[in-house]
Amino acid sequence: MEFHVGNQVSACHYRYDGYKILTYSSGKKGVRYLFTCEDANSRAPKYVQFSDHTIGPRKSAHFHIFTGNDSQQALLAEMENWPTYYPYQMMNAEVVEEMLHH
User: Fold this and answer.
1) 2-100: which CATH topology?
2) Which helix (H) or strand (E) holds 5?
3) For the chain, domain boundaries
């Protein structure tokens, strides 16, 4: 994966570390797929989690990517900041509609 901040690019080859199914305070369930950077010298985030809300095979309307350097457990506890990504082709009004029903 590559991460771009301005003109700076950091990259790492990530190892898949399985997944965790979470039950949120609302009662809804979600899944996070866990990845760990294999290069200790990389400036990329050490841990990455991918979440698309679906626990089974199904087309995703959007997804979330969580990154950090502390631990997978610390990222799993993140419930306030949900970086959300939509398909590039979606129009602004479609994104707003999707978020209103999220």
Assistant:
1) Lipocalin (2.40.128)
2) strand 2-5
3) 2-100
Hey, what amino acid is at 40?
Answer: A
Q: CA angle, 56 as apex, 55 and 58 as ends, to 5°?
A: 115
* Residue 5, token pair as written in the block: 């901040």
Give me the residue label for tokens 């626990």.
55
The pTM score is 0.83
Q: Residue 40: its pLDDT value, please? A: 94
Gap between the Cα atoms of 77 and 15, Å rounded: 21
Measured at the CA of 12, the angle between CA 75 and CA 6, to 5 degrees, comes to 85
* Alpha carbons 16 and 34: distance in angstroms, whole number: 6
Count each helix (H run) and each strand (E run) in the chain, helices first: 2, 7
